[in-house]
């Protein structure tokens, strides 16, 4: 099968997200200028550089109470900071609650029953029980082609890791089984890993 996106795919559901999988989930916590807090998952998320460490996430779509975007991007525009919380398999239901199209005054931490703790290097909360979290200072927001598509880039200024998942000096993801996004309404959990050596190593 071949299709050009501009002409449609002819399938019952859009296959694009099912092709680009699995995708890590960036559970983005932000705080608005007024002190309101927001927590939302984004599967267009990844790390993009080592030195300095940098990450990105993309927000698509808009809410009627946020003009041209969603709460996360609107808050980052105001404060310039955000935190990426990593989603463990055990937190999948709470993560799903925070994905709802809630009004801007909704505090997703409270709605999902999640404890929060203050970040160290930025003025923002993070998910207390997350296996890892990346505190970030926004470096750039790029408007992408299309309606309400924004790419947010940030430099990591602080890294939290749960000591229970550090084994022999390595961060062992099988201990908390990170959640990843597939296509449609599907998710996957990392339960085992394998290693490959690069040529010449």
Q: Per CATH, which architecture?
A: Roll
Low-pLDDT segments, ≥5 res? none
| Secondary structure category | mainly beta
Share of helical residues: 10-25%
| CATH level-3 fold name | Pnp Oxidase, Chain A
Assigned CATH superfamily = Electron Transport, Fmn-binding Protein, Chain A
Rg over CA atoms = 18 Å
Order of helices and strands: HEEEEEHEHHEEEEEEEE
Index terms:
201 residues; globular; seven-stranded antiparallel sheet; FMN binding; NADH-FMN oxidoreductase RutF, flavin reductase (DIM6/NTAB) family; Pnp Oxidase, Chain A; oxidoreductase activity, acting on the CH-NH group of donors, NAD or NADP as acceptor; 4 helices
Task: Describe the protein.
Residues 18-173 form the Flavin reductase like domain. InterPro entries: Flavin_Rdtase-like_dom, Split_barrel_FMN-bd. One of its GO terms (molecular function) is FMN binding. The protein has four helices and 14 strands. It is mostly beta strands and 201 residues long. Strand 13 (179-181) and strand 14 form a beta hairpin. The longest helix is centred in the middle third of the chain and has 9 residues, at 71-79. The radius of gyration is 18 Å and the shape is globular. The chain starts with 15 loop residues before the first helix and ends in a 12-residue tail after the last strand.
């Amino acid at each position: 099968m071949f299709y050009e996106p501009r002409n449609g795919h002819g399938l019952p559901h859009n296959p694009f997200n099912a092709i680009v999988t699995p995708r890590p989930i960036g559970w983005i916590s932000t705080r608005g200028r007024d002190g309101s807090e927001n927590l939302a998952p984004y599967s267009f998320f990844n790390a993009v550089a080592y030195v300095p460490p940098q990450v990105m996430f993309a927000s698509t779509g808009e809410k009627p109470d946020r003009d041209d975007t969603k709460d996360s991007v609107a808050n980052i525009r105001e404060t310039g900071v955000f935190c990426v919380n990593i989603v463990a398999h055990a937190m999948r239901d709470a993560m799903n609650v925070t994905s709802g199209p809630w009004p801007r005054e909704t505090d997703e931490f409270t709605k999902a029953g999640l404890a929060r703790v203050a970040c160290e290097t930025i003025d923002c909360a993070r998910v207390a029980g997350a296996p890892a979290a990346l505190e970030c200072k926004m470096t750039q927001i790029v408007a992408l082609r299309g309606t309400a598509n924004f790419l947010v880039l940030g430099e990591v200024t602080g890294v939290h890791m749960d000591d229970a998942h550090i084994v022999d000096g390595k961060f062992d993801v099988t201990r908390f089984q990170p959640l990843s996004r597939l296509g449609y309404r599907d998710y996957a959990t990392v339960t085992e890993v394998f290693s490959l050596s690069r040529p010449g190593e």
